[in-house]
Amino acid sequence: MVRPVSGSLSGKVNLPCFFSTIPTSAPVVSPNGTVLVSRDYLRIKWTKIEGETESTVLVAQNGVIKIGASYRSRVSVPSHPEDVGDASLTVVRLRASDAGTYRCEVMYGIEDTQDTVNLDVNGVVFHYRASTSRYTLDYGQATRMCQKVGAAIATSDQLKAAYEDGFDHCDAGWIADQTVRYPIIKPRQGCYGNLKGKPGVRTYGLRRATETYDVYCYVDKLHGEVFYAPVTHKMTPAGGRGGVREEERRAWRPPASSTPPGDRAWTAATTDGCPTGSGRHPVAVPRMQCGGGLLGVRTMYRYRNQTGFPDPSKKLGA
Hints:
The chain is mainly β. The chain is 11% helix and 32% strand. The chain has helices at 81-84, 139-148, 156-164, 237-240, 245-251, and strands spanning 5-8, 13-15, 28-29, 35-37, 42-50, 53-61, 64-67, 75-76, 89-91, 100-108, 111-122, 124-128, 152-153, 173-174, 179-184, 200-206, 214-219, 265-267, 278-283, 296-300. The strands form five sheets. It has a six-stranded mixed β-sheet, with no helix packed on it. A hairpin with a 2-residue loop joins strand 5 and strand 6 (53-61). It is elongated, with a radius of gyration of 24 Å.
């Protein structure tokens, strides 16, 4: 196995794979002694290993390339690998779900070369809102708010990569290019936007910096660990001393969920040094009783218009 490779959400990586270019069969030679063509057969196959199964990423053979559905327009190998012995796989527009173990298999003549490489994808996009109310941040405030929690305002490519992995959030938020967007997997009343009934990232286009919305932030690496505390009884935020809200969002990765099904947990987000006492729960396996069947870190609100955090006397996990 070669050294692990690490990339960032929506970024680009190269998974290395090399093979010998020494011919293993006699070339075809013309009567005047010119080498016409080598008889060596070349086949490159990349797969992703998931448990006991392997799914096809890319197969290149005799100038024909086949690419797995979830990797179309995102993966490639060198155009003439036999010239340099390089069958490395380039992956662009990285998604969190791309993380895992990949196998490279090269058949060249009578030689068969195999190797595996692990890919780690860093970065999480998360929705952020002031605890007071919905849509209260102008562009400058939105940028600073992301910075306050150790993140940066997300780019459109990062939001798109998160959407392609199942991120669905019906709240308009600022993006780095001063546009306002929101990702919708399941179109529904109140969330149609400019795409009507089609799934996709909705956009309001370029907006004046003084307008107010929520914001989508991006953090590249998680420092520390977020876990659901095993408790025998629920508690108020004063008794829970929960983890940080943004850290919980950063830790969320499909397909594992750190909070048991149906359990909500207090978190203690700090934006100005004071705990806000929000209630959230990560959902990686869709369930109607947990966030309406949508993936992501779901937030509990006090009011129907999605404002206000739960009453401090409410008892939850942590």
